[in-house]
Structure of Ferrichrome ABC transporter ATP-binding protein:
Amino acid sequence: MPLSCSQLSVFYGRRKALNNFNLDLKPGEIRALIGPNGSGKSTALQAIAGLITPHEGQVEINGKPAREMPRRTLAKQLAFLPQQPSAPDEMTVEQLVRQGRYPHVGLFRNYSSRDEQAIEWALESTGLANLADRSLHELSGGERQRAWISAALAQEAQILLLDEPTSFLDIGFQVEVLNLVHRLSRERGVTIIMAIHDINQAISISDRISLLEKGQLLFDGEPDELAESGLIEKVFRVQGNFVRIAPGSRPHFDIELIRS
């Protein structure tokens, strides 16, 4: 297992934001974390990334406790993209992507030919090679999100954590980002954990889904199993049905709207 979480618990004051969270990921797997606001998705990602210290439990990467790894070593293994990353608008795409090489370059920021190759690969993988000289404020929403993912890829980490990567994007840009995530998994073998609000997007792209509510892991399994569990209706307090557009296709949750 490239990454596993065992009995992770996180407290904010007296509130238990994450309660005995367990997770095992295979190489190249896409795992979606879903749940209502405040369910613990972002907390889980931050604990895995080492940005907050769990009060109980531990994270292991390739069988080694993540908390025992130096920060630079951990960054070579794992990249984290928060929900609303920020950088100066005048920064170019290439400059942003170069930031991703931080774990690899020396004290005086001397970029080797290996670093340059990684930067070029990250730009090409995200379709941004022709936009490398553009400043961030010139980019569309989808392009900017791809630029941040490109910076994460430049770390050459085999584990990528994404917190709501499609939020605030138009549907076309959402599809653009999800297609990129799928390619990274299938073509590059990157293991991806993605917190996401849209249930149907989670079902369409993920190999497995983890459903949280109030910090508790309620479900961990394949999309088809989730569709048959009845948990979506219960946890999100909506009425609807799972339907399949074609035989063998993944289920799609069709919400029943209340009409007067």
Observations:
- The chain has a mean pLDDT of 92.
- The first strand starts at residue 3 and ends at 12.
- The CA atoms of residues 87 and 136 lie 8 Å apart.
- The first helix runs from residue 41 to 49.
